[in-house]
Design a protein that fits this description.
Structural class: mainly alpha
Number of helices: 8
Oligomer: single chain
Distance between the termini: 16 Å
Number of strands: 0
Order of helices and strands: HHHHHHHH
Largest sheet: none
Length: about 150
């Protein structure tokens, strides 16, 4: 296995490799249901109407929360020093596999929603599907992203 070296600005002060910026955009996309939950809680009176507008069936809302839980967990873990706590280090090292599983779960949910709508065209569904496919390709091909989950100095 060859060791790839990155410029100094790609490392934290403790020597861990920082995730690439697109990693955080991916987490925001995967945790979009959590963002909607936060917005609905903050808006109090209009929160239930907002949730009903995006998720008419509550099962879809709960499945979105479940698939986005990995993204929220990875976001929390990404700001930690992985070499200081052994449990956090092990969780972080398995995070890449869970990230891929979360993307595949999100894609599966989107295909399921399309199946429920008899594959009728929707601009929002198309954008989400294309972004999720692009995200899967990015996560599979990005060496920097793979290295940041493997390396802890």
């Amino acid at each position: 296995m060859s060791i790839r070296l990155y410029p100094l600005q790609h490392y934290t002060q403790s020597g861990n490799l920082k995730p690439p910026p697109f990693f955080y955009l991916a987490l925001l996309f995967l945790a979009r249901t959590w963002g909607l939950l936060i917005i609905s809680v903050v808006s109090r009176n209009e929160g239930e109407k907002l949730l009903a507008m995006f998720y008419p069936d509550k099962i879809h809302f709960y499945s979105g929360l479940a698939s986005g839980a990995v993204a929220v967990t990875l976001f929390i873990l990404s700001g930690r020093d992985h070499d200081k706590n052994r449990i956090i280090s092990k969780l972080w090292q398995t995070g890449y596999v869970f990230l891929l599983l979360s993307i595949l779960t999100d894609l599966g949910l989107q295909f399921y929603y399309l199946l429920l709508n008899n594959f009728q065209y929707s601009l929002a569904a198309s954008i989400q599907l294309v972004f999720a496919l692009w995200l899967l390709l990015y996560c599979c091909r990005s060496k920097h992203l793979k290295d940041c989950f493997v390396r802890t100095i």
